Amino acid sequence: MSGRAVKLGLLAGVASCVCLAAPARAYETEVDASIAAQYYTLSSPWGAPQLRRRRYTETLGLAVWNIQGQADPRGPRLSFQSRLRLDADFGQSSAERTIGDPQYIPGLEQAPLDLMYAYLEGQRYLDGYLSFKLGRQYVFDTLGFWSFDGGLVTLSTPAHLLFEAYAGLEQRGGGLPTFGTRRFEAQGVYRGDRNGFDPAYYPLFLEESKVAPAAGLAIEASGFGVLHSRLSYRKVINRDEVNVSPFLDLGDGQFFLKGNRTSSERLGYSLRAGSATIGAFNGSVVYDFYNQIFSQFALSADAYLGSRVTTGLSFDRYTPTFDGDSIFNWFSHSPTTSALARADVRFSRRLSASLSGGVRWFETEGLSQEYAAKPEPDQTERLFDLALDGGARYDDGRDSLALRGGGETGKRGHRLGGDISARRRFSARYDGMCLLSLWDWSDALRPDRDATSFAYVLGAGVTPGPNFFARSRFGLELSHDMNRVVGQRFRALLTLDLTVLK
Amino acid sequence: MKSRPDLLLLLTLLSALVAWCGDTPALAGGKSATPAPSGSLSRPSLSDAPNALRPPGSLPDDGGPSPVVFPEQAIPLRFSHQKHVKQLGMSCTTCHGAAKTSQTAAESLLPPATRCDGCHGTNHRNLSAVTTDEARPLGQCSACHVGYDPKRPNVVARVLVPKPNLRFNHRAHVVGQGMACARCHGKVEELALATRDQLPRMKECVTCHLLGSSEGRSRPPASAASKAKAKAGRSAARAKASGACTTCHLSEPNGMLTTAFKSGKLLPPPWLHDAGHGADFIERHKLVAGDDSKFCASCHQERFCVGCHDGNVRPRRIHPNDFLSQHPVAARQDNPRCTSCHQQQSFCLTCHQRTGVAMSGPIGNMAGRGRFHPPQSMWTDPPRSASHHAWEAERNLNACVSCHQERDCALCHATRGVGGRGPNIGGGAGQGVNPHPVGFSGRCQQALRQNARPCLTCHLPNDQDLQRCR
User: Does A458 touch chain B (CB under 8 A)?
Assistant: First the structure.
């Protein structure tokens, strides 16, 4: 039985269990499934190779709420949530997955199965002081959007403080447990399952760290009404043997490194202070222990001018950091910094508009024009881009019209344009959408790729029925891009969303 | 536009779009335009009361409380609270008797018409045959019922006050906490008709229900002493009031807030966690979610976040138009930030290898490929000119990492012996071009201790440079 057959079998099994589940008693069961099929083609900048994308994605969610029995808004609550995804591309060539073939792409899978999350969650135990989560779960905070397999415990105290601790294994593409995605690994490392590989074959496709232990702590201050802050710490360890010979295939000596190594270790702090009548201040900072730098720093201050207008200023500074196994950490020099001003106006409860604009700058060590003759890396050169973003939205709950435009322009090129889209519900069952888009871009490094592109999208949807399938929808969208780079590009998207709450 | 047919098609489609939207409700601002319930709205839903008389927490231009929580009403009546309360000395509970006993928001606290009968000489006990005292001006139907037509006796416009989409216990607030009506409804006694505008504002609720506090934690029953204290002021009320959203807002079986109502979609006001879901919220949500993701989880399940951050259908709001063609420019501008959703060496690199864009990839995909970057003489060869790749790498290394693997860089940047062209490899030793940032020497020791792999990828263990870091 092939791996794909096993995966599909598993998916079908879970689907059957879900469909045959008995009607809810004290607990509530929610089942949702979505299917998206996308068909389009993209090609190399030189015309070939050409990739036929025949993507088929199926997602299945199962949630059981109030497992503990009768629901009490202030009492203990136990629930289970899970989501499984099959993300297949049937347009792939088998040669791309055949070891030794000149087209072989390490790590490429045709139909990876991804257990996105599956956890048991308990809330408000011990008189409301204790909550926990067990299983594959996400952590959202200033350190980013991250996933791990393990346990998380939250302790709420009467002193407006909340303590959180978690430990487990970072979700990685393979390894243990399986059915994962590489989405949540730190950046900069190309790795995966090297089973069946000669050591000299794609030496820079590193053996994955099968188990990557991770642990984190957080302290949250909340409940003061005007203030909320969170201090987060997280460390992830790389284990197992790893290749340190990038040119093994060219006769370079074999070097492997064993032992535990830091994958990432970061401390983050975020703060929000605000008054309902005056405005709000938001800030966050992240310190990367491995790189020993403040890798992210963001500030924003908003003022509420009456009940309809909000204006604000924001500042964001970001320096790329990578997995501790990656040499790119030590090639990373300078942050990208943005300083923007914004205004958000709510003309009515249905019509709102926003506009933000400012500068973004990129720094280098040394002056690019003089460096060849006088290399002085202590001097800083800043290259400025102008950034603009605007949008307006009318939404009456049934129909909507949205306008969005913006872009960024600077010495290295520009990207400017806008979209106008409309959605309309014709009845309780039928809806339609239309989008027109015009964008223009240029790339100073590759003038041959400059283009003005016009695109339109037409879509329609139908809700199967008013009761059982009231929250379900079948949709079809067709998009057509036209520009001198691709000529004509068509994309078809079919979606089926089913949600059932028993 | 590069071609005239494209322009024509654009204009045609734009016209079609405008025509299609032509009969949508006008984009007028002002007060909410939710269709009036049957029975017609013969008086405005909102009063023009001076702000001092409106409920605490209201602002001059706030347009009343949320029409999603308190749907639009129709009160085709002529009535003066001022006259009844200030001139006639009636109390609020004379008419709104249930204000002290009501325990759910679904209960109507409007007085029944029979309440008027005692003074006005009418008889509303049988609504299909109401009798009046025609001798008294205030005893006639038209005295109170706006638009009453004597030619159609006993027919009046209906009062429509939809139940609010809210949980509220009047008894707990009025009796339990000793709160005066004005605390939530403003100075109604100074007004004629009290409209929807006199309904409470959330801004005032959260002065006691401190947001984020006591996420549903059970609370001990209040003692008699604490009740007395509660009457004394706000601080004691705060001690009892839960700040959990579901204290007041309706929720789904899964414990999350109900956000879809016939009257509209429930969205946070701008001042609530600074999370106004305006047209630009998609750009600024990271600060709100990064600080307090539990707040987001009041309404959004994880699958909502995952839809973009680990999604598989391109979100057009983020990646408009032919993004496949324009993404190299966006990536170099780091706008939007690719790493928010993509792992470069799995998501980006794999596709770049398949299309032959990546420098190190399948040989079969390299055939016929041209040069992606500017000519080698200016892009990679020394000396470092203004067009050298080093500047781009320093500005935003993420853009490089989406195509290049370590060995592409080690080729020149590794020191002799290991990376680059080692002694066993034809072409000579690696060039050892130092790629490290300013201040690296002060950081290398700790980095080497934590993870030596990057160091050993480019340096031999006995490398002089490495020895300096040990």
Answer: no
Pair of tokens at residue B103: 């325990």
Q: What DSSP assignment string belongs to A15-81? A: HHHHHTPPPPSSSEEEEEEEEEEEEEEEE-TTS-SEEEEEEEEEEEEEEEE-TTSS--TTS-EEEEE
Higher per-residue pLDDT: A141 or B407: A141
8 Å CB contact between A49 and B356: yes
A228 → closest Cβ in B292, B305, B385: B292
Distance from chain centroid for Cα B229: 37
Instruction: Report B:450-469 residues touching A (Cβ under 8 A).
Output: 450-454, 456-458
Tell me which residues of chain B, numbers 140 to 179, contact chain A at a CB-CB cutoff of 8 Å. none
What does the pLDDT look like over A298-356, one tens digit per residue?
Answer: 999 999 998 899 999 999 999 999 999 999 999 999 999 999 999 999 998 889 999 99
* Smallest CA–CA distance from A328 into chain B, residue: B406
Which B positions 64-123 lie with beta carbon below 8 A of chain A? 66-67
Q: Are A271 and A237 in contact (CB under 8 A)?
A: no
Q: What interface predicted TM-score (ipTM) does this complex get? A: 0.90
Spans of chain B below 50 pLDDT:
1-3, 21-44, 214-234, 418-422, 425-428
* A350 has a chain B CB within 8 A of its CB: yes
Q: Is the pTM of this model over 0.90?
A: no
